[in-house]
Predict the structure.
Amino acid sequence: MSRSLAPENPDAEEEFNGLALALFAAQREAVPIYRALCERRNIRPGSIEHWRQIPALPTRAFKEYEVSSIPPGERTRVFLSSGTAGQRPSRHFHNAESLSVYESSLLPWFRGHFPGAQPMPMKLVFLTPEAAPDSSLVHMFTIVRRAFGAPDSAFTGRLNADGSWGLDVEQTLAAVREAVGENTPLGLLGTAFSFVHLLDHLQAAGKRFALPKGSRVLETGGYKGRSREVPRAGLRLLLSRFLGVPPAQVVAEYGMSELSSQAYDDPGGVFRFPPWARACVISPETGAEAGEGETGLLRVLDLANIASVLAVQTEDLAARRGAGFELLGRAAASDPRGCSLRPGPW
């Protein structure tokens, strides 16, 4: 137990364990590809006693198979992962019930890591297109806008002719100028590559702003193919320098189309999932959990994944940092992914 990234609360751990085992039992029976994996490993309900023993399905399975307990005729939404042209995306199917759980998972953890959204609405500007129905990120932003955004909140991204995402820099800066002129806090949320485009424009133009106290920035996603790469700590400092937002008010989000919960980092770059999810760093050589500071592959168990599988083995490299994890990039030979890899939604 000492190597888990779970909170040190015996009651919470016992409750999570019971729910995880119950959900595993249901998903083993309802998701054919997952049942095949469990049978191959001779794992069934009753043969395991702890959530760490629940088999994790690799994210690549979401590309090759329909990882869902929802009958095809009852699927009302599908989120697709991003990828390079020609890649088959991951698919995560939803219906009204699973989307409701997704939203219930999203809102309280976002509120706790994006201060300023409560108790009063604030203007939120999303550096993504608004019309991208297969993107879980855009869906997330749409829910956030509805729950926490002021009426004049807006999306300033655009869909390019090739299906990639672009940014209306002038519309974004118009919102920044308005916030500064009215001394009203502003929330900026978008992909890392969109922020790099914005920062490059500001640097070329020799412009800097000082957003009002209470403003916040949230960045997510990667860079490959869409902008120069900037280390997360460096991006945090650049956003502070050019937008006048303290580094502590810049938060990074980690999410995947295959998951229903998100992790957020602290100023030190350590990510944490909500209490209804667990993250482990797994050694690819031994399959055991990595020790403090050791590098491995991130595995997530997400109770909000009610209609697919709760245990997902990612191809993201991470290092264990206490009760959280530090993201280090993608494993060698993994398919590139991230919101930067348009066309194809996140």
